[in-house]
Amino acid sequence: TTNLTGTPRGRHVAAASGYSTLAFVPPPPGALSSVAFSPDGTLLSAGATGDPKASPKTGPRANGITYLLRVKNGSEVRTFSPGGGAEAFSPDGQTLATAGGPGNRSTYLWDVATGRKLAVLTDHHDSRIRSLSFSANGRMLAVNDANGVVYVWELPPGRGAPSIRATLSPQGIVNSDAVAFSPKGGTLVMGGSDGQVYLWNAATANISALSTGGSDITSVTYSPNGQELAAGETGGVTYVWDLATRNPSAIALSDPDSEGIESVAFGPDSKWLATGDASGSTYLWHLPATKSAETLTNPPGASAGSLNEDLRSAVFSVAFSPDGKTLATTDTNGHAYLWKMP
Question: Model pTM?
């Protein structure tokens, strides 16, 4: 490894297949569970979950920390706490939403430019927040909690006081990291523990469903053009639907390691799909092919936090930069990797 000048936490790492990485290794409090690029691609947020055994009074160790990094060199801009559980940039890039760590039960809205806290959205069931997604116009924020309930918050112009627009719990359970708004409208997709993928139409409040193989849905995402929908599940399969043709059947992409899928993300051209699995591998698929084109394996490292041993290398989050030249992945050893795409 080679240390970057002025960035003690950023290191270049050689990798197979002509890919290279810039690794960000933060200090404790725990494993990195989420990454997100700003809309202009210059910033990356990376969430460190915190220590689930710590008291909220101990601060970041329980509340978690979200790091705001410069993509070009991995240097730190600032940190946000409470944070770390999940994060999402607003479409205009001015607001960052973060979920608190294991000892926290709220969602926080931050001013990206100044670091100022704008609002606190408290979960009505006093349950930990697991995933977040802004609507395409930035006027709604979907928040999924550990009880399987999705709250849709209305965010008024001028950063007025947010209010609840809808409370959703199709069939009772929506899984972790499994909510996402369409980039082309007001449709929200939610992944269920019953193997169903639910779509909520904000205009009509109607809910429809797409069926998979029956395993828990762990991650969902829309393609940037809004025409494809991908959902990963614990059985090791990622399903991809072509929404433009309204075909109810899906392409099934089987994980080469037969591991559970932890995260899915489309590239900006809507053709490349990245899937991160529980064994620490990220696979790149060029749709509609059903065989992975590339394999990216996170370098091994000492485990962070108190996670189950089987998940210590899991790729909990993947995200493409807006220009498609960089892929960000995390692992539960406490690293965030920026892969330079050839």
Answer: 0.87
